[in-house]
Amino acid sequence: MNVEIEKSEVLDALHRLSADFGVKLQAPEILTSTSDDEERMLPMWRDTVAELTGLLSPYCVLNDAGDRVFFNLEMPVNWKSSAFDNLVAQCKAFLSNALFARWLDAVRPDAAALYRNLNKSFIVAIEHILSLREKPVRTD
Asked: For the segment 85-107, what is each residue's pLDDT rounded down to a tens digit?
């Protein structure tokens, strides 16, 4: 089972978040990310992916294909596979918020801390989904 996430999706979310935040604080030239910043974002992206890999362990192996990442999951046989789509959505949201927090570290550390705190709900959700198990089937 693979959780596949396109890097461009997460970067697009970062651009939207940073633009909205920049407009709200009346400092878009300082806070807004653009595609021109993407080379500068690569270390942040790698750190964010590593953080998610840690959350998904011990169930996953990371395969980084450059433009997308694959988290190859080896879940227990009784894992509730119906939760897979929710897991993918939570992972994408986690990556977007974690990357945005890293983006804000240099210019607004207070806001970065806020986004890290907001991201805790995604951490809890991911951990919960990974722990879901089907009830044993009675065979008597």
From this structure: 999 999 999 999 999 999 999 88
The owner of tokens 């270390």 is 43
Which residues does 88 contact at the CB level (< 8 Å), separation at least 6? 3, 4, 5
Q: What whole-number distance in Å separates Cα of residue 81 and Cα of residue 129? A: 10
The amino acid present at 54, given as its one-letter code, is G
Q: Identify the bridge partners of residue 61 per DSSP, sorted by sequence position.
A: 72
Closest CA to 115 of 98, 131, 103: 98
Q: What pTM value is reported for the model?
A: 0.88
Amino acid at 129: I
Largest CA distance in the chain: 68
